[in-house]
Structures are given as structure tokens and as C-alpha cells.
Amino acid sequence: MTTISKVGREGITAGLLGAAGVALWFFVIDIISGHPLYTPGVLGNAMLAIIGGTPQGLAVNVTAYTIFHLVAFVAVGTLACTLVDISRRVPHVTIGLLLFFVVFEVGFQFIALFVTQFDTLGRLAWYQIGVANLLAAVLMGGYIWRRHPELAGELRVSLEGTA
Asked: For the whole model, what pTM was predicted?
């Protein structure tokens, strides 16, 4: 029987936290606008169109997006936790983690701004996607930060260049 490593468990948990935060944000926005499941339906429709599939009805689009959403967040969470684990052995990697986070967040905001210009995404606004992404980053980052309090010292050492 295969067991999941501590890094794997943390990555899955971080990813699920981020995915849940995004899903909850989109759910609240959709309920307020009077269109439950609108956002995952539109994103699923766009995702299926991009990969060459035929967009389906709301249930299929939401299911396809939800599966992709969960897998993507667990993968990102696992990558982040793997990089944190590596940084514990190689302290200079910690500054790379910070740079990766900043570049990823800024890049994602630009991608959101770009893709919301297309009709495929209906009336989704870039800031709705941006807030969802920031919420996921705070949830995932906060979880990882609490699980690894040594990161603060490692980041300081990495920034000072004293390691």
C-alpha cells in the first residue's frame, strides 16, 4: 500500500483550500447576480472549447470545470509544498519561492485581464477572477506559512544573503 508523504498531504490540503476558496467566491458572486453556477459553467464551456471539445449543457460544463479546477489546484499546492521542502535544504531557494509567487500572481492577473476580453467568458470580469486568485493564494500561502514557521527565518537569511 502506498502512503502519501507529508509534502504530498500538505500539497493536497493547500490545493483543496485554494480550490474551495475560489469555488465559494464564484458561488457567492453567482448567487448575488441571480445566476447560480454561472461562472463554473462559463469557464467549463470555455475550457471545453479551448481543448477542441464541444461545449455541453450546464451540468457537463460545471463538472468538467470542477474536475480541472480540483486537479489544477492540487497540482499547484503540491508544487508549492515541494518547493518549500526543497527550500528547507537549500535556503537560497526561499527567495526564489517569493519571486515565483509574485511573478505568478502578477502574471495571472494579466492573463485574467486578457481572457475576459473574449465573448467565450460571457460577463466575467477580470477582477472577479483576480479576487478569486488572490483569495486562493492567501488561503494556500497562509496554510503553508502556518505549517512551516521556519520560512520566515529562511526568507530573511535568503534576502540578506548570509546563508
From this structure: 0.83
